[in-house]
Specification:
Layout lengths: L1 E2 L9 E6 L2 E8 L5 E11 L7 H16 L7 E10 L4 E9 L3 E2 H7 L7 H20 L2 E2 L8 E3 L5 E3 L6 E2 L18 H4 L7 H16 L9 H13 L4 H4 L4 H6 L4 H18 L1
Parallel strand pairs: 1-5
Antiparallel strand pairs: 2-3, 3-4, 4-6, 5-6, 7-9, 8-11, 9-10
Helix pairs in contact: 3-5
C-alpha cells in the first residue's frame, strides 16, 4: 500500500457517507485527471498493526480485480493516509473506478410507467452474473441492495461496496449485521447458519423492486420484516398481485421454484417452532 501523496488526487467532493466509510468523487492527477471514487476507511490498529481481518478484505478486493469481471467494480489502487495515534486508527483510501449512479437512482430517474421488462431482464442478468462470479470464488457479498449496485451511462451493472463481503465455509453462522433489513433472508433474520442463498434472496427482492418501483418487503424491524415476508403466503397472494406486470418474471424462473420456496418456508417454520 502506498502513502497517498497530495498530487495523487485533486479536489475531492463528498459522494456518500455510510457505516463502512466515506466515498469521495475525485480526480486522479497522476492518471490524466481520471475521475475515480475514493473510499476513505478508518482501520483500528492492534499491537501487531493492521488487523488480519482488514488485510484479508483488502486481499479479497485485489483478488477480485485481477479477473476484471465486467459486473464487479474495479479497485484501481490502495493508499494509506495518516495514522491517528490518539484513536489508534489508520486511514486507508481505496481507489475505485467511478460510476455516477446506483440502481436506486437509476430506478428513480426512470419515467412512468417504469422500466420495460426487457430492460429489467438485462439488468437482472448482469446482477446475477456478478453474484455468480463472487460465489464461484467462494465469496458472499452479504449486503446486496440497490444502493450497492452501480449502473453506468451505457447500462452496465457493477456490484460494489464489499465492506461486508466474506469468503465462506458451508453453513456459516456469522454476525447478524448482514444485509440491509429489507433484503435480509429469513435465515439471517432468525439468526440461523447461512451461505450463498442470502445473496440470492437479496437478488430476488431487488428484481421484484425493479418491477414494483418500491421495496418488496419494507419491514421496520426484524420481527416486522418476517411478518411481511410470510403474510402474503398466509393470505394466498400470488406473484402477480405482489409484483404487477411480472409475467416475464415467471417465465425466467426455474420450473421447480415453487417447490424450493415451499421447502424453505417449511424449514423456517420448523426453526420458529423450536424457538
Amino acid at each position: 500500500m502506498d502513502n497517498i501523496p497530495p498530487e495523487k488526487c485533486g479536489a475531492m467532493r463528498l459522494r456518500v457517507a455510510g457505516a463502512y466509510g466515506t466515498v469521495y468523487k475525485a480526480k486522479d492527477l497522476s492518471n490524466n485527471g481520471m475521475i475515480v471514487a475514493l473510499k476513505k476507511v478508518r482501520v483500528p490498529l492492534t499491537d501487531d498493526g493492521v488487523p488480519m481481518s482488514t488485510l484479508r478484505e483488502i486481499s479479497l478486493l485485489k483478488q477480485l480485480d485481477t479477473y476484471e469481471h465486467p459486473n464487479i467494480v474495479r479497485l484501481l489502487d490502495i493508499c494509506h493516509g495518516q495514522r491517528l495515534e490518539r484513536e489508534q486508527q489508520l486511514v486507508l483510501f481505496l481507489v475505485f473506478e467511478h460510476v455516477d449512479q446506483d440502481l436506486a437512482c437509476y430506478l428513480e430517474r426512470c419515467p412512468d410507467p417504469g422500466l420495460p421488462p426487457t430492460r429489467i431482464k438485462h439488468l437482472v442478468f448482469q446482477i446475477l452474473s456478478g453474484v455468480d462470479f463472487l460465489h464461484s470464488h467462494r465469496i458472499i457479498h452479504r449486503d446486496l441492495k440497490p444502493q450497492n449496485i452501480l449502473v453506468t451511462n451505457t447500462g452496465i451493472v457493477k456490484l460494489a461496496d464489499f465492506g461486508l463481503a466474506k469468503t465462506y465455509d458451508f453453513e456459516m453462522r456469522l454476525t447478524s449485521v448482514v444485509v440491509t433489513l429489507w433484503y435480509r433472508a429469513p435465515e439471517v433474520l432468525l439468526g440461523q447458519p447461512y451461505a450463498t442463498s442470502v445473496d440470492i434472496w437479496a437478488c430476488g427482492c431487488i428484481m421484484a423492486e425493479l418491477f414494483r418501483r418500491a421495496p418488496l418487503f419494507n419491514g421496520s424491524s426484524e420481527g416486522d420484516q418476517l411478518d411481511k415476508i410470510f403474510q402474503p403466503a398466509t393470505r394466498g397472494e400470488t406473484t402477480g398481485t405482489m409484483v404487477p406486470d411480472s409475467g416475464l418474471l415467471i417465465a425466467w424462473a426455474r420450473r421447480d421454484l415453487d417447490s424450493q420456496v415451499l421447502k424453505k418456508m417449511q424449514k423456517v417454520k420448523k426453526i420458529q417452532n423450536k424457538t
